[in-house]
What we know:
This protein is α+β, with helices and mostly antiparallel strands. The chain is 31% helix and 22% strand. The chain has helices at 6-18, 46-58, 124-131, 145-162, 192-202, 205-214, 226-240, 262-271, 324-334; strands spanning 25-31, 34-38, 63-64, 66-70, 103-109, 112-115, 136-141, 166-167, 171-173, 181-187, 281-282, 286-293, 296-305, 308-316. It is globular and about 75 Å long.
Amino acid sequence: IPASTMKVVTALAAIQRWGLDHHFHTDVSTLDGWLWVEAGDPYLVSEELDLLVAGLKSHGLRSVAGIGLDDGLFVPGLTIDGRSSSDNPYDAPVTALAINFNTLSLVKEAGKVRSGEAQTPLTALGGEIGVRLGSGKHRINLKDRETALRYFGEMLTAKLETAGIAVKGPVRFGQVPAGAKSIYRHENSRNLREVLTSMLEYSNNFIANYLFVMLGGKDGQRGLDMVKAQQAARKWVDKEFHWREYRIEDGAGLSRANRLSARQLLEAVKALAPYRDLLPTHEGVARAKTGTLKGVSTYAGFVWRNGRWEPFGLMINQPVAYNLRLEVADTLARAPDVSRYCPGSKC
């Protein structure tokens, strides 16, 4: 069970599909005064939404009759094996339209609720959720598509009004109507290199599975789902690696049904060698990705050994101390190069 080292495979597939300079985008159109937003970006955070709104204002937008949200890029109610119903950010639902990876940061003090981020206004939904929380700092996920879309609409409304763009009507969900006029395509300020670096460093399941689902269709195709993504993953793996026995259920490593051998994981790491700077660093000894599930501890990437980066893959499918994998990497880095003492077949 690879756990989050599956993100190494997802990152490699994304690089080959789009290239590191690719920027994901969000399309905006209008009809009868309504503003329609169509999904396509896994990294639409509060600061990026500010840039999108600034772009709309620079195109002359001053008021809207209402806001329409089109999340038809993915099928409704996308089901991901291994995702639980916890409040934890790593269990956030994957929806095509999402703000802040479908998570919400709140602080509750003396019974009062406020946003946990200066760049993120407190919306009505945030206030409702905050009432149910205990005192302290919280980052929770938005549970389901309906809640995620409601929050997106509230956030967009708040950002538009802060920028002086009046929102006169409600938010509704549906497909961009025929005849709507495209007025703006917002390209995310971050390219794929930055998106993947963040995904790998913070083990962001939302980004990984958003990319995984997008890999299941052609650019511009709608109605993408996990079945299409799994089929596309098998087709890509069969062409790229010719593995005989493996199983890929999701792109983040949440599913315990995922199966890779240590040798297969090592092959994926070797293929990622030109892009190893995307991987998180460990005390200058390793550039590698961890993976953790109950009874699963994995680690894969590169270790600095004898003056060069050497690929490795470690998979432990039994309970062990959390730091054991880091100790293994440290040991690999310190171990002497014995190849000169046993040349050729003697090694």
